[in-house]
Amino acid sequence: MESRLRSILLRTVLLIIVVGALPGCASKLTTDSGDDAESSVIEPEVSRRQIEPPKINTNDFEIGAYAGLMSVEDFGSNAVYGASLAYHMSEHFFFQGNYGQTDTSETSFEVLSGGAQLLTDDQRQLSYYDLLIGYNLLPGEAFVGSSRSFNSAMYMVAGVGNTDFADDKFFTLVFGAGYRMLLWDYLAVNFDVRDHMFDSDLLGTDKTTHNIEFKVGMTFFF
Amino acid sequence: MKNLTAMLLLILLCASAAAYGKDRFYKVVVQDAYIEMHTGPGGGYPVFHVVDRGELLEVHKRHTDWFKVKTQKGISGWVGAEQLARTLEPDGSPTIIKRPSRDDFLARRWEAGVQLGDFDGANVISTYVAYQFTENISTELWGSHLSGDFSDGWMLNANIVHQPFPAWRISPFFTLGTGVLHIQPKATLVQVEDRTDQEAHAGFGVRAHLGRRFMLRAEYKSYVVFTSRDENEEVDEWKAGFAVFF
Fold this sequence. Notes:
The structure holds 2 protein chains of 2 kinds. By secondary structure, chain A is an alpha+beta fold. Helices cover 16% and strands 54% of the residues of chain A. Chain A has one domain: Porin, CATH 2.40.160. About 5% of the residues of chain A have low confidence. The radius of gyration of chain B is 28 Å and the shape is elongated. Strand 1 of chain A pairs parallel with strand 4 of chain B.
């Protein structure tokens, strides 16, 4: 008799525990309706679902470094290197900021004249920054071998910036086109050609200079 | 006693299911007749696979409005937000895909942008970050680079913005602030000293939500520069640009 009573008691306790643990079993949704059984027969409050947006990794930012060649009008073509940061706003548009540096060489005049120097070594260093809007023009795939393909896109960029050269600063317009190939979803190789245009009077007369930059970069999406 | 052990085990299982029920990836079930998988995150990339109704997808990552998903057979591809929004979670509740809407725009907290314009004849490039306290009041930090024919410079500003009608499609705002202006005459000119002065400014402008996280913004500011000379300088600035919100 005693053991039977104990068994019934035990089962009741277990039932209570199981019922208590059930919500965890049933779903991850929680309810917060007030249990006010005395106030009304019909419970008007609808249990509210707590919405938790799922955590999905986004990689809309792109950071990278590049190196290449930059031709500075009258001052030769030299190695350029820099860094870039981009934010991809949609599948079509992105914003990009760049900072780069190059050491320019002597003008033809300086070379031919023998010893004349227009600029000091410090002044020969050119640095620029720019803020651009980009448009992904031709999305596609690049096929390497018979079993490998990489996503790619052609894009165009346009924007404004500033060039610091010969102790002077020049408001600069930048136009260009590029090709991006994604090795993985988070790593890309970029090939870019850009024209940095600014008005300069360094050689006596005012003129618009076109400074073409060709560069190869690696970028990381995060 | 066997019953007891079995029940205890069940309870433990349930408790652990509740605690560790979150899988590594968000899972959805296809509800449309089929869903299209593209090779890349964009409508221009070709469709290479379709997933039938009832199949389970793991959502691995997101790039702009495109989601990289993996089927149970292990096929990976990209699905657009519009199609993914029409799936259901495995328990039948609607899929939650966060897409910046007009409501998100109105409830935004952070805003960052780039502007281009004219500062008393000089070109000005500005970037700013704004934090919105309420729908009407926000505060901003600005950094500007000036480049003119005769001088260059930079400017740092902090200001408060009041937006009386935040819900208007093209919404006006008023701004008040102060900062520092640094002017450096061009090297080719005769020796003139650099100068750094404090300034205060007031202005107005408009902001328009273009869709998604994107907005257009244009404004006018009138500056009073507190120079060390006898007279203060007054400068007008006009600029316009793009901004995104978070």
